[in-house]
Amino acid sequence: MAVDDTPSEEADEIFGEWMRQNLDRAAEHFEVAVVGEPVFGWRLRSISAAVRSTSGPRWLRVVSEQVEWADGDWWTGNADSNAITGVRKPKVLGLVQWDVEQARRQRGELMTFVPGQRCSDTDVLRAELDLPAEWWEQLRGTIDAVREVATERMRDDEPAMRRAVHDALGIDLRIEHWETVHGDLHWANLLRPRFGLLDWELWGRGPAGTDAASLYCYSLLTPGTAAQVWETFADVLEAPHGRTALRYAAARILHRVDMGDHPDLAEPLRELVANLPE
Q1: 151 within 8 A of 81, measured Cβ to Cβ
Q2: In 3D, which of 131, 70, 132, 77 has the Cα closest to residue 102?
Q3: What is residue 7's predicted lDDT score, i.e. its pLDDT?
Q4: Is residue 104 part of a domain?
Q5: Rounded Cα–Cα distance for residues 114 and 107 (Å)
Q6: Does 256 score more than 90 pLDDT?
Q7: Which residue in 36, 82, 171, 236 has the fewest CB atoms around it within 10 Å?
Q8: Is the pLDDT of residue 5 over 70?
């Protein structure tokens, strides 16, 4: 699949159509029918859709990556998360993988269907949400349950984390406390009105408080919801390791800002970091 010499918008259109073909190929393999409008992931690297199977509704996802990068914890994250039980999340039921032109590797994942509406169409929340107390309790309970899961998976290695923080914030970060984290907690991965948590690609060991810090950072444009996130995780975010996690999460998102994502978050994130106590 070569689009390197094609103008950006046209290249995206070509790549998107190719990803739709990959979704159809995976659907044929699993003998399911695509019934929902496909949803693309970050920069078109994945495509997902509701499907119908003989056993009922399911969810089908196909991710594409260059062969040399299609490996490691992130590549198997969704399937590995089957080890996490007792929380409302998808379960991977089947896998299929194939290479294209010895350049890209595709991975199809057939999952259980978790009904609900995403809290936001993007990672960042830009409109206040009115969520019941039970929803917030389930969010906190889910993150607490994940913390207790034993794993050798890593969200990222410590040197890479420290480089990311130094590059974005110009500070040297010491990470002293670790725990198991979802690793990509933002509003597009959360369901309502009934709580659900999607996209477990990046779960693994990370700085303690990463999930609470990430969700708070992605809430900064909605002060009311941000305040509720803080209240829900106050014991985490107000602790020394929580401040470390806030710096790490802010630096990670600022890297995305530098890539052109969420430019309206840059100033709030820098203000947050500037006001954090040592």
Answers
A1: no
A2: 70
A3: 56
A4: yes
A5: 20
A6: yes
A7: 171
A8: no
Residues 49, 147: one domain?
no
Q: Is pLDDT larger for residue 9 or for residue 99?
A: 99
206 domain residue, yes or no: yes
Backbone angles phi, psi at 30, to 5 degrees: -85, 0
203 and 146 share one domain: yes
Is position 246 within any domain? Answer: yes
pTM (predicted TM-score): 0.94
Last residue of a domain, which of 112, 141, 165? Answer: 112
Q: What is the span of the domain harbouring residue 62?
A: 8-112
The answer on 136 and 265 residing in a single domain is: yes
Nearest by Cα to 253 from 179, 205, 175, 186: 186
pLDDT at 1: 56
Last residue of a domain, one of 91, 112, 133: 112
* Cis status, amide bond into 223, omega within 30 of 0: no
Q: Are 22 and 106 in contact (CB under 8 A)?
A: yes
- As a whole number of angstroms, the longest Cα–Cα distance in the chain is 57
pLDDT one-digit tens code per residue, 158-171: 888 999 899 999 99
Q: Tokens 């929902």 map to which residue?
A: 36
Task: Give how far the C-alpha of residue 47 lies from the chain's centroid of Cα atoms, to the nearest Å.
Answer: 14
Whether the CA torsion 210, 201, 180, 84 is positive or negative: it is positive
Residue 252 contacts residue 164 (beta carbons within 8 Å): yes
